[in-house]
Every structure is written in C-alpha cells, then in structure tokens.
Amino acid sequence: MSHLETALRRAIADLDPSDREARRIALGNVRASMLRLLAVYDPPLSAEAIERKIDEVDAYIRAIEADFAPTPARAAVEPTPDAPLASSDFDEEYEAGDEDYVDEDPDEGPFDEDDLEDQSLEGDQDIEPDVDEASEPLNETRGLSVKTLALIAGGLVGFLVILIAGLYLAQQMTLGSTTPTTVEQSAGGTAPAATESAPPSTDTLESTDVPAEAVPPPTQSAPPADNPSESAVAAPDAVPEVVSPAGPPATESLVLFDGHDPSGFKSASDNPVKFEGSADAGFVEISSSASANGARLIVGPGVYQRIAGHDIRIVVAARGARDNPAATLRLAYQNGHQLSGWSDLKLGSDFQSLTMTWKVPKERTGGEGDAILIEPGIPGDQTAADIRSVTIDLLP
Q1: Which of 384, 241, 394 is nearest to 315 (CA)?
Q2: CA separation (Å) from 150 to 25, 136, 145, 176, 292?
Q3: Which UniProt keywords apply (predicted)?
Q4: Residue 58: CB partners within 8 Å, gap ≥ 6?
Q5: Does residue 156 share a domain with residue 208?
Q6: pLDDT tens, 96-133?
Q7: Cα 54 from Cα 34, distance rounded (Å)
Q8: Residues of the chain falling short of pLDDT 70
Q9: Angle at 316 between CA 314 and CA 321, to 5 degrees
C-alpha cells in the first residue's frame, strides 16, 4: 500500500462507513491539500508530473469509494474499450480546480507552510478528546454532525500533508543539498569586495580634516642610493592631530590635489616637485632653491568659473619635510596678472591644515591662467615642505 493510499484511508478510518458525505469531505480535504503541496513544491514540478500525481490520488479515491459502494442489484455493464473510466464525485468537483493549482507560481503558492503547521496543531487539539472516546459505542459517532467530522478530518489532513511533504523532501535530498552550497560560494566570492579600499572621498576633504597615513617608500624622483638620509622618508608617520580651519563652514569644496595625481604642480626644471608614495596615496615635496622659490598648482578654467566673484578659503595640508624642513610656508592666489596678498603660515613636523582667504575677481585680469603659489621657507634657503592635499572652499 502506497503512502498516498495510507494517508487517504487514515483520513476516513474513524468515520461511519455509511456516512458518505463525511467521507467525501475528508477525502476531498486530503486531495485539496495534496494539490496545494504539489503547487508550491521546491524544486517546482512540471505540469505533467503534477497531473500524474493528481491522477494517482484520484485513482486511490475511486478505489476507496468502490470499497464502500453497495453491491448493485443488477449486473454491472461492461465498459467498452473506448469508454472513459468511471470517475468519482471527486473528479467532477475538484478536477476543474486542478488548472488553478498547476498554473500558480511556486513562489506564491495558494497556502503557506506555516498555515499548514497551524492547521495541523489545531487539528491535533481537536482530535485528542475524540481519540479518547474512540472506544465509545458506534451510535455516539453517528450523532456527530458533518461539521465536527470535517474538523476531525482537517486535523488528520494536516498531519498527513506534513508526512507526505517529508517523504518528498527526502526523495529530493540530493538535488536540494546543492542549493545552499552554491549560495555560500557566491556569498564568499563577493565578500572581499566589501573590504576593498576606496579612494578618499571629497566629503573628507570638505571638512579639511586630513587623515594620517603611513608614508610608503619613495618611488618617483627617488634620490640616489648613496644618500642614506633620504631613506628616513620610508618610516611611518605618527598620527597627527589635525585641527579644522577656523571660520564659517564651506558651502562647497573643490579638490585640486588629494595625494594621488601630482601633475597639476609646475616648477622650474632645476627645482622639480618630488612625489613621494604611490598612486593610491602620497604627497609632494616642494623645495626652495636659488633659482626657484617653490611651485605653482594650476587652477583649471572650470574651477575658476565656479569660484569667480566668491569668497574662497584655500586649505593646504602641509608639514616641514623630513630633510631640511622649512619652518614656514607662503601661500598666494594668482588671477591673471593680479596676485592676492601673501599668507605666511607656520609648519610643524606633522601634517596640519593651513588656510588663507581671498575674494576672487569676477573677471580674470589678464590672459594668464589661475594658480596657487606655494613657497616654503625663505627664498633660496634650500628648505622644503610636504604637501598632502590642496582644497578650495567656497564661503557663504
């Protein structure tokens, strides 16, 4: 005897054999629950597989009905080979609903498994008093209403559906076990992406709080190997305490240099700007020599159009160089032929935010472009300063 037939017969085991209506309700509940289970089964079953399983259930129902059917008074008429098989009332009442269950999206089945478990628990609670009274005389069972019998059958159906679901899941154990492994590998493959370092955002530069970072070994413009004093640059810097510049908060910050691309700096050929670090993070070293006082950071036309006619604050994250450190740094803004006043700022051994403010003319005074002039120490004293970032803040 198959599991389906066992489930169907157990659903009507406690019913009066002569009560055909109660038996029809109990078997119908089992059949409907089976349809719901097939519709939401994971992995989804094909329409043909669902149809075969429904036919199997109907065949068992017809066999059970035949066991309870009374002996006919006249000889049964032999069906012709072309005649369709006799069907029970369940075929007529429920086969019309098969298409609804088969076509449903398995992800959005007609019922939820939690509801099925709740139904099973409720059914078990209703069954307990009736099970204790199973030995009572048959005439008391016949006195039960159809509604009470339906509740009893519903409890049995919930238990049987859970049993059937467990059997089907056991049969598909091999297929189902591959899905968690795939998901785990996929999750493992994408996890490192969350730890990848991102380039510094403009939000950090807007607050002018320059983060501390370790200075990597020199790469570009590295000094000759016979100069041991330059190797001290490779030592990591202590974490400095950077103080935000005083004054009103910026309405917008425009980053000219953030430690990545030093191509915006221009200087004399015999006093080049040296870039220390890597393409991801670093700083430039600007020196003062007899032929050149420092370097210029070009301000592009797009930036000038944005700041023209506005009060600006120039923020430079700077320190004295490791070798021949400058004690001061001079900043100025060049707008065509016009030059802002020089700002003399003190340098320390750690990076700190140095600022100057100026109101940019609405029209450029001359054909030359705009630039920020940076001169460390006293002109020609051979001292140097390290620059890690340069930002222009628009002030309200």
Answers
A1: 394
A2: 6, 19, 9, 35, 100
A3: Membrane, Transmembrane, Transmembrane helix
A4: 31, 87, 88, 90, 91, 95
A5: no
A6: 444 444 444 444 444 444 444 444 444 444 444 444 44
A7: 8
A8: 1, 71-147, 172-246, 279
A9: 155
SS (H, E, C) 210-249: CCCCCCCCCCCCCCCCCCHHHHHHHCCCCCCCCCCCCCCC
> Is residue 246 domain-shared with residue 104, that is, in the same domain?
no
Distances (CA, A) of 387 to 234, 241, 310, 376: 16, 16, 25, 10
Looking up tokens 């020199």 gives 218
243, part of any domain: yes
Report the amino acid identity of residue 6. T
Boundary residue ending a domain (186, 219, 247): 186
* Domain region containing 277: 204-394
In the chain, how many domains are there? 2
Residues 6+ apart with CB under 8 A from 342: 330, 331, 332
DSSP assignment string, 254-289: EEEE-SS-GGGEE--TTSPPEEEE-SSSEEEEEE--
**Angle value at C-alpha 305, between 303 and 308, nearest 5 degrees:** 105
- Nearest CA among 61, 49, 52 for reference residue 86: 61
- Model pTM above 0.85: no
Read off the amino acid at residue 353: S
Written as six digits, the tokens of 201 are: 């955002």
306 and 275 within one domain? yes
